[in-house]
Amino acid sequence: MSFPAQFPEGLFGSFDNNRPVHLTRTRYFHARLLSGDMRFSTDSSYIFYAQYLSELEQVISKVSIALRKSSGKDTAGNNITASMLTDRNQLKSLLSTDQGYKFLTPIRGTPPYWQSVLKDLLATIRQLGIPTWFATFSAADMRWSEIINLLMEQQKSTQSFEDLDWTAKSEILRLNPVMNAVMFDHRFHTFLKEIIIKRSIVGKVKDHFHRIEFQQRGSPHAHCLFWIEDAPLLDKADDQTISTVDPELHEIVSSVQQHSKHHTKSCKKKGTTCRFHFPRPPSEKTFISRRQSLADPKIKKPPQQLKDHAQSVLHNLWTIINNENLGDITTDRLFAAAGITQKDLEDASNILTKRNTVTLKRSPSDLWINQYNPDLLRCWNANMDIQFITDAYSCVMYIISYISKAEREMGIVLENASKEAAAGNCNAQQAMKKVGGAYFRQREVSAQEAVYRVCGLHLKESSRKVQFVPVGHNPVKMSIPLNMIKMKANQLKNDIWMLSLYDRTESAVIKYPRFSKENSPELHFHANLQLFLPHRLESQLKPIQFKTYEEMFMTGSVILPPAKQPVSVKSIVDTNRLLFEQNVEALDEAEELLQSDGPQEDAWALIAPEAEAERLDGELDREQLNEKEIEVEIPELDTFSRKTKKGHDIEIRQTLFPGPQMKTFIQQLNSEQKGIFYRIRQWCIDKVNGKNPEPFRVFINGGAGTGKSHLIKCLYYEITKIISPHSVNPDDLVVLLTAPTATAAYNIGGTTLHQAFSLTKSLPLPYIYLRDDAINKLRSKLQNLSILIIDEISMVGQPVLLYISERLRQIKQSRNALFGNICVIAVGDFYQLPPVKQKSLYNLKPDSQFPLWSSNFSIVELTQIMRQKDDAMFAQLLNRLRVKKKSDLLRLEDQTLLKSCERHTVPPETLHIFGTNDEVALHNNQMIKSVCSITQTINALDYDKNPETGRLKGREVPYETSHDFLPAHLVIGPKARVMLLRNIDLACGLVNGAMGIVTEVLPPKQGSSSPEGVMILFDNSKINQNKQQSGSKHQATKITMFEENLAKMLLGISFQFNWLGRVPYIRCRA
After folding, report:
1. Where's the AAA+ ATPase domain (predicted)?
2. Which residues, at least 6 apart from 311, have a Cβ–Cβ distance to it below 8 Å?
């Protein structure tokens, strides 16, 4: 790759340049990224390039080191000589084991690296004991004003932190991932040193460990373990020792500690209850639930009866919590409403718990709040989690496995690559290179993680070093470099090994192989003697009078100066081992379960709920990229159904108008249109020039024919032309064209309000926030939105406008700003159609909760009629009719003009409007008989779900009514005039209201009883279901059956062709 912006003259871009002092690639890139020249640190491509090359160098180096690792003897027990290590064939057999991808262990972030960390942590808790606290601290750079202010200072920005919305903050952070990562690292280490350790907020920390994890979205989390001096021990200290009261920290708690009450998509992936156990149970005090044996003879009641009673207690409590608006209710009142007491809650928890757990004192108002320490939360100012570790099982199975977890997919890829290399009969070096190549091809790294790895920022740190101690007859040794071995190949002296641990004296946590006493007794006792019996020579571990190491351990004795009496070897070993091992039996049992059953990933949701929720949501997002849609198999029906996909997949349609045509349109604007056009144009110019103009909200009012749609197209073109080139991505949406109906949206080249903002049919009040996964998808589409245009504003009801404003607030993360500080252009005429089943925006009461419209929009009136400008008299008549009240009398000249337009003979094919549906049906049946020589009746195919088997079974007779007004029986034939009643594809113009003529009813496919589809020649020649054929000649479009879910009480699915009378849309209902 070449980087002309970084190296405009093509000089100094290579790390291979001859230098007086040798510089590794890692040190070269470290200097580049952390230099004052921000051309390197602000270019993500350069960061990933640096990460790739620096780790490529490490992989090559580790392959060489792996080839130098071996035991002191070969498989036959012979000593290894220098000549053996220079022979390729012997070298392959000398490798202690084909570790597959284990040679990647020293490369930070790889699955073998985190497997090594797991072993280090197990050794640490074996020697230091169970940690006291587990804590997680997440990044919240959007809240940390010091980071934003520093980055703005570097970028020479004059804005203040308070003036920035979500989009502006994210853009600032995106532009410099290096500084963002470095600042998080600095902030966390300062917080760890100055707050947690120095101030002893959670106790005097005697040892600690932490790991930095980067999840799917790239944000870092710090997972920590703290060993506290004189910490309370379970069952050895009073519960009140670890009791804490959660004071309300208002804004911080509600912003970063509250779990989503609507749950994310990962919350209930495997069941109906939240996997993160929210809401949490209320309690009047903190207590510890301990596993109990219900078979205790002291317990008189049967175990099942105890369980049933405990479940009944909790069921009553959760019934009240789930069905009541708790408000400010106290815990004792809540318990009274549920008919239980605090003791009942504790007893039920003790009976039903599967492991020792801590239940914190929690009021009903805090059920959705994740636990925290108030002082740490106030200092960190971002999401945190802190938990007391109760026992060895929880520590190993849940916490240690969680904190040392690797990327599962990456581990599988490397294992498969290793197996393929072995199956292909590759030599050791080729196999390692193949595994290394798989690592680089498949690894997913965020920009900030790449910075951590290139710049040498620590992904894990511990207060104590962990050192592996090899034991046994053939401990692994490190040879001297191969080039030095070749020089000694012909020498008799075989001094080829580097210094071993026996030559070093630095203290550390030790880890060592633990052999089974039952399966490998000699290895077990030999290792224990090597580790815990003082000796100078290997022969002292088994003198000649002992046949086995076990015999030496059990019966031997030695004299250790300055003592003069012999001491039992067993007592010496046991005493010394206690200095390095604690909770041995419990830890051994937990480790065996971890190795046999694997990590309990479902329990990770309880360890760090918010961090784990973000990780799982990220994995689900990635899974959905390749996820195939699963369709319900309907018997005897082969049909294409445009189902609504689960989730919130958003496709926002925007039309690009040709420049020459738009210049002509702009020249045709009248003086009224030009006034508002150039006012908005000037705002756009001020914005791109950095003047930060105040957002505007304007209502462009005008009757039919005043050029509103014409003005919308001109505004859209000009806004896009001015603002888009200044966006980071020129394809980002800076102006959004919307309308309340698909027909209106198609006419202006936009999208519907419901599709653009993920609105549902019912809009309950108060406003319901969109889930995190859904709002993130919206935010990715609309993060750079500056102006929203709403056409046909008369059809927008009060709840819809409120939801639009709140959605934009949620997208932009602006707390109190109307419409998220987005400019709004509302276009329409309130004399035209009102909203369906909602109140119009102008229909406000004095105490209305919808003040959005009346006090926040300025009005621009378009009065000059452009559509009938050549017939001024008729245009003026239309304006007078537009504002006429029912009680007003028509002027005489208006009556005369209207009567002159009457036609006494009306062609039968003309669209008729009736007052009732029965009249519509009667007229359509008559027209079908007169127009269509051949007709056929298409029945809806309705299916009921069997409540016992869950399978769908077809009904002989379809339901006569449908909640979406689609007919159960459709009489149709060629030449019938039809109208779509459902939106099929907005981009292609297949929207509700599109009209055309049936050209053919396609016969059923084999095995089906319903037509394959109906061919319709639409009036609008631009309508075509196949986008790729949009430029072809006017041709008929195939409309297939439509699937709908019937009312819940019917529990069925229906497929049918749906039409309005004989102006149809094709319907399937189920």
Report:
1. 694-847
2. 348, 352
Q: Which residue matches tokens 């532009």?
A: 175
**pLDDT of 169:** 81
SS (H, E, C) 309-368: HHHHHHHHHHHHHHHCCCCCCCHHHHHHHHCCCHHHHHHHHHHHCCCCEEECCECHHHCC
Distance between CA atoms of residues 1012 and 1041, nearest Å: 8
3-state helix, strand, coil in the chain (%, to 5): 40, 15, 45
Extract the tokens encoding 522.
């000699």
Q: Which of 820, 695, 743, 762 is nearest to 1065 (CA)?
A: 743
**Are 1000 and 987 a contacting pair, CB within 8 Å?**
no
Phi, psi for residue 113 in degrees, rounded to 5: -60, -45
CA-wise closest residue to 510 among 585, 595, 593, 577 = 577
Contacts of 756 (CB under 8 A, 6+ apart): 650, 652, 736, 738, 782
Q: Which two tokens stand for residue 3?
A: 């980087």
Return phi, psi of residue 895, to 5°: -60, -40
Q: Which tokens sit at 663?
A: 């210049």
What pLDDT is stored for residue 437 in this prediction?
Answer: 55
Low-confidence ranges of the chain (pLDDT < 50): 70-73, 75, 85, 91-101, 238-250, 408-411, 413-414, 421, 440, 604, 607-608, 622-650, 1028, 1030, 1047-1070
User: What token pair was written down for 647?
Assistant: 């989730």
Per-residue pLDDT, 1069: 34
CB-based contacts of 597: which residues, under 8 Å, 6+ apart?
none
Count of C-beta atoms within a 10 Å radius of residue 291 = 14
Between the CA atoms of 69, 74, 79 and 81, what dihedral angle is there, to the nearest 10 degrees? -60
**Residue 551 and residue 522: Cα distance in Å, rounded?**
10
Question: Omega before 279 cis (within 30°)?
Answer: yes
Report how far residue 991's alpha carbon sits from residue 980's, in angstroms, rounded to the nearest whole number.
7
How is residue 985 annotated by DSSP? B
Three-class secondary structure of residue 1 per DSSP: coil
> Hey, what are 507's tokens?
């203290």
* DSSP tag of 957: S
Count of Cβ atoms closer than 10 Å to residue 460 Cβ: 19
The confidence score (pLDDT) of residue 629 equals 36
915: enclosing H helix or E strand: none
List CB contacts of 883: < 8 A, sequence separation 6 or more. 831
CA 599/CA 398 separation, integer angstroms: 7
Query: What tokens does 850 get?
Result: 């919808």
Nearest to 241 by CA among 18, 390, 47: 390
3-state secondary structure of 789: strand
Q: List the one residue out of 1032, 831, 44, 13 whose CA is nearest residue 445.
A: 44
Q: What DSSP state is assigned to residue 627?
A: P
Q: So what's the pLDDT on residue 100?
A: 41
d(CA 83, CA 97): 20
Report CA 371 to chain centroid distance, whole Å: 22
* Whole-number pLDDT of residue 647: 37
What contacts 842, CB < 8 A, 6 or more positions away? Answer: 830, 853, 854
Token pair, residue 375, equals 């002082």
Question: Which alpha helices (H) appear in 95-176, and where do they start and end?
Answer: 111-128, 145-154, 166-174
Of the candidates 650, 631, 647, the one whose C-alpha atom is nearest the C-alpha of residue 639 is: 631
What is the C-alpha separation between 941 and 1002, in angstroms, rounded? 17
pTM of the prediction? Answer: 0.60
Pairwise CA distance, residues 332 & 21, whole Å: 73
Instruction: State the pLDDT at residue 1058.
Output: 43
Identify the three-state secondary structure at position 122.
helix
Q: What is the pLDDT of residue 679?
A: 93
The reported pLDDT for the residue numbered 490 is: 57
No. of H helices and E strands in the chain? 36, 31
Nearest CA to 1045 out of 695, 641, 647 is that of: 641
